[in-house]
Structure formats: C-alpha cells, structure tokens
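As promised in the previous annual report, we have extended the structural survey to additional targets. Below is the entry for YD repeat-containing protein.
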Amino acid sequence: GRELALTAITDRTGEGDRIDVTYNPQGAPTGIIHSGGYHIAADTDPKLLRITALRLLHGEDHEHSTTLISFGYNTAGDL
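The corresponding structure token record, generated without further manual editing, is:
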C-alpha cells in the first residue's frame, strides 16, 4: 500500500501543543520540533534510512546535544 510520512501531531483542537517532524530529501527523518521549544535531532543510517539515535538539542543555538536513546540494526534492517 501507499505510505505517507508523518509531518505533524497536534492536540484535537489544533491550537495547543504541536510536534513537527522534518525529513531529508531521501525521506529519512532528521528532527522533531515541539511547540514548547524542544528540538530533537534524529540520526539515521544512510543506507537503511532508519533512526539510529535521538538527541535532545540544547544551548542558545542548539549547538549541544544529549543522546536520549540509540538503536542498532542487523543487515536485514531489523532492530
């Protein structure tokens, strides 16, 4: 079937919290941005296009990061 990328999540009113997901041209997710100001970088495997780590970005210009979780995959692309 057809697959569509998740681009945003909002509360049911559409006026409260919002989470946006960004992607690179190859379709791999690159970041998650919360309307409250949180920025999370999504590191991806360039061949598998799967997320390998999520990092909380911080600092005035988001120049620092803290790894929240990391993932590993086998050659078949399974976790």
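Strands lie at 8-10, 18-23, 29-34, 39-44, 51-58, 64-70. The two ends are 23 Å apart (CA to CA). These points will be discussed at the next consortium meeting with the crystallography subgroup.
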